[in-house]
Amino acid sequence: MSGVDHDVIVVGGGPGGLACAARLAHWGVRVLLLERNDRTGGKAVTVERDGFRYELGPKLQVPMRGPAFAELFDELGIPDRLRQVMLTRARICYRPAGETEYRALVNEVTDEGSDGSEMFDLWGLDEAQRARAVEIMAGMVLLAPEQLDGLDGVTMEEYLAKVGDVPEALYQYLGMHANASLAEPIDRVSASEQIKIMQQLALQGGGGLLRGGFGRMLDDLAEAVREKGERSAPASRWRRSRSPADG
């Protein structure tokens, strides 16, 4: 790498790193993308075997209308590569804590979202619990941007503790959502980030899929970086700063 000049070095080839590097390269910035694994994609990588592609975990595009990746692909001049698949029917399964049996329903999904009644039915909430769950979720959806900014340093668990009287089924759902959407437990995830996603779900529709998998879309972003003459460094070229623990 000696003698090679770069304006920006992006460390990590997950969704955020790829989006950042692709955008910078598109703007004409000389960017080097470093990834310690043998391919980019991070936790959203899609693997291939025997001609089939597999997600390593469930991935959904949220929201259905106007997702950030659609804006990015438009900016990069490759909107046709996103290839969204909007869900029309979804099977939802839920197992309450302490129980061994799953409850399930088939939910009709539209790009206009849902009032959540199917989920409340699935959770088995009584009228009082349902009313409280609606009140809490509506409160999250109606938070103004400046109120969300004030929650940057607050975990979702801390936010719910302050709200109080949260039905256990709703808490479990939000715990699952924190892990699924932001890959962090509810006692670590930022309340502002999780609530922003909840607002998108409510106001811009539910989730959709991408043809070829989420990782295929990220491969397109990596290709957008390469097309600008940049490269993704393999594991043998991964560099990191030494920490005191290294000795």
In short:
The chain has helices spanning 15-26, 68-76, 117-123, 127-141, 145-149, 156-163, 168-182, 191-204, 214-226, and strands spanning 8-11, 31-34, 46-49, 52-55, 84-86, 89-94, 103-108, 208-210, 232-233. By secondary structure, it is an alpha/beta fold. The protein has two domains: 1-56 and 212-241, FAD/NAD(P)-binding domain (3-Layer(bba) Sandwich), CATH 3.50.50.60; 88-206, Guanine Nucleotide Dissociation Inhibitor, domain 1 (Orthogonal Bundle), CATH 1.10.405.
Task: Provide keyphrases for this structure.
two-stranded antiparallel ribbon, 247 residues, alpha/beta, Guanine Nucleotide Dissociation Inhibitor, domain 1, FAD/NAD(P)-binding domain, 2 domains, three-stranded parallel sheet
The CATH superfamily of the largest domain turns out to be Guanine Nucleotide Dissociation Inhibitor, domain 1
Overall CATH architecture of the largest domain:
Orthogonal Bundle
* Main CATH class of the largest domain: Mainly Alpha
The CA-CA distance between the termini, in Å, is 26 Å
General description of the model:
This protein is an alpha/beta fold. It is built from nine helices and nine strands. α6 (156-163) packs across α8 (191-204).
Secondary-structure map:
Elements: E1 8-11, H1 15-26, E2 31-34, E3 46-49, E4 52-55, H2 68-76, E5 84-86, E6 89-94, E7 103-108, H3 117-123, H4 127-141, H5 145-149, H6 156-163, H7 168-182, H8 191-204, E8 208-210, H9 214-226, E9 232-233
Parallel strand pairs: 1-2, 2-9
Antiparallel strand pairs: 3-4, 5-8, 6-7
